[in-house]
Design goal:
Layout lengths: L2 E4 L2 E8 L2 H4 L7 E4 L4 H17 L7 H10 L4 H8 L4 E8 L2 H10 L3 E3 L6 H16 L1
Antiparallel strand pairs: 1-2, 2-4, 2-5, 3-4
Helix pairs in contact: 2-3, 2-6, 3-4, 3-6
């Protein structure tokens, strides 16, 4: 069920039973985040990629930059607190290949579930918050 939202950017909604077991394996090109819908995750992923292309990134990795953009924070610890992986429903983002998504899900015993869409009002709020990271 993973969707390629941009060439090489895959998003899947998954159930995480034990975050402590999966946390050591995220970062870099793989991130698990809490979000209300796939659109806000996709938008944050695009912003993270663009930041690295322009050299305006605040984080050292794409996964870290994704967290910053999604949370609207510029400190990674604050971003993790707001949007980092928790037990239950999360979005898996992989900057790579579909096979990488499937391997990660299988290796960590995650279960894919249907993605949720945002309302227009939710998307507007998210776009405004994401823009703040760009300015700061």
């Amino acid at each position: 069920m993973a969707e390629e939202v941009l060439r090489g950017v895959w998003i899947s909604r998954v159930l995480v039973e034990n975050p402590d077991e999966v946390i050591p394996h995220i970062g870099g090109n793989v991130q698990l985040v809490r979000a209300s819908c796939w659109q806000e995750v996709a938008f944050a992923a695009v912003l993270a990629l663009r930041a690295f292309e322009r050299g305006t990134n605040h984080a050292k990795t794409l996964g870290g930059e994704l967290l910053l953009r999604l949370s609207g924070e510029i400190q990674i610890k604050d971003a993790i607190r707001k949007r980092g992986v928790r037990k239950g429903e999360n979005y898996l983002v992989v900057f790579g290949k579909r096979r990488d998504v499937e391997d990660f899900i299988k290796r960590h015993g995650l279960r894919e579930i249907a993605v949720e869409s945002c309302s227009k009002e939710e998307m507007k709020t998210f776009f405004e918050k994401s823009a703040l990271v760009e300015v700061l």
